[in-house]
Specification:
heterodimer, A: about 200 residues, mainly alpha, two-stranded antiparallel ribbon, 8 helices, 2 strands, about 65% helix, about 0% strand, B: about 190 residues, globular
């Protein structure tokens, strides 16, 4: 338990990087990574919710009765998701439209509830924020990487700019649902090879 | 009658909740290692999803829209789903203990199954009338059950095969799910 703040932060970037090490939150991972931009946007929205809910949960951890803690966590998370929903609607409307129902669905993203239950409800506010930030940034990086692979192969563009010449035939399979599953499966395989235990 | 048939087929096959809409993937991968657990989870989801679809539709139309507080939709829906799951759990424990112990830990897990919340939101987004929302909820739930049971069948066979070490477990599971999604992708031509 005597880990330093930086350790808690760094572990989210490799040791416990979601969704590879912690196989949670797969639905947004698969659904919104058609382009790099959507992937990063989703990652940042999730990071915000993760940090805020971790902070609030850890401040309130001694007040919340243990029996109804899950319900309390969900209400805290839902509140911040509503904040993200309204803010993105006002300032990033295009992103709001392309993420669609996956913004409200951050509420049921198991990563957020998982961190609240497994970490924030047992640790102090500073450590919890570091944990939320680390896991959130790790999640954002994963989504960005997956989005980059799928966008480059599937539509031949990166951040909306064409990468290959005009003669490139897009590998449409990658931007559709089957490609998402296969791509994530293969990335997980590569991660396993690199981090051989 | 014909349009409802189209809706049912579209919700089960063409827009399959797991394999085409990317919802409910965590339980899809988590509970598909054995056929029994897959059947249990499918049953629990079909039940809760249908109920949640109906109740959230009613809440949205007669409460949120009437009071003009639609921005509270996310919070209201998750509360409805969480309390519904709790209620179903207590009811089953009392009335059908055999089924309760069969479903075990899957019931509380349904709260964070995004398929449930997702279908409720889709019903509102597509502006379905009550009957359509009811049929769509049942059909989406059936699609989830179908995909889960098919996938569990495939996964039980994979255990027998020799899978390279880095690909084992979740990794090969995802690739297999991709193949299954490819099969379901074939239904897109029907639309």
């Amino acid at each position: 338990m005597a880990k330093s703040i930086s350790q808690e932060f760094v572990k989210g970037l490799w040791e416990e990087i979601p969704p590879f090490r912690l196989v949670l939150g797969l639905c947004p991972t698969l659904a919104v990574t058609k382009t790099v931009e959507d992937g990063l946007g989703m990652g940042l929205a999730t990071t915000f919710v993760l940090v805020c809910s971790n902070l609030l949960v850890s401040i309130l951890r001694n007040i919340i009765p243990p029996k109804i803690r899950i319900a309390c966590f969900i209400i805290i998370i839902a509140t911040f998701v509503t904040v993200v929903e309204l803010v993105s609607q006002a300032f990033a409307y295009r992103l709001y439209m392309s993420l669609g129902i996956f913004i409200p669905l951050i509420v049921v993203n198991c990563i957020v509830l998982g961190r609240a239950e497994a970490f924030a409800s047992k640790n102090g506010p500073v450590l919890s924020v570091a944990d939320g930030l680390g896991i959130g940034i790790g999640f954002t990086l994963s989504l960005g990487a997956l989005g980059a692979i799928r966008e480059v192969l599937g539509s031949g563009t990166f951040w909306g700019n064409p990468v290959f010449g005009a003669s490139f035939e897009p590998f449409t399979f990658m931007v559709e649902a089957p490609g998402a599953f296969v791509c994530l499966g293969l990335m997980l395989c590569i991660m396993n090879m690199l981090g051989k235990k | 009658m014909g349009e409802y048939l189209v809706l049912i087929i579209s919700c089960i096959f063409i827009n399959n909740i797991v394999l085409a809409q990317y919802l409910g993937n965590c339980p899809f991968l988590g509970t598909s290692k054995k056929m029994d657990t897959a059947v249990g989870m499918a049953g629990a989801v079909i039940f809760v999803l249908t109920m949640a679809g109906i109740i959230t539709w009613i809440v949205d139309h007669y409460f949120l829209k009437a009071l003009d507080i639609e921005y509270l939709r996310t919070i209201a829906f998750i509360l409805v789903i969480a309390s519904l799951v709790q209620f179903v759990e207590m009811f089953m424990k009392k009335m059908i203990p055999a089924l309760y112990s069969g479903l075990g830990i899957f019931l509380p897990l349904i709260t964070t199954n995004c398929a449930v919340m997702g279908v409720c939101l889709i019903n509102i987004k597509e502006e379905y009338i009550f009957l359509e929302a009811l049929i769509a909820s049942i059909a989406y739930a059936a699609g989830f059950g179908l995909a889960l049971i098919l996938f569990a069948g495939v996964r039980e066979r994979i255990i027998l095969g020799r899978v390279p070490r880095p690909l084992q477990d979740t990794s090969i599971g995802l690739v297999t799910a991709g193949m299954l999604a490819l099969a379901f992708w074939g239904f897109k031509g029907m639309a």
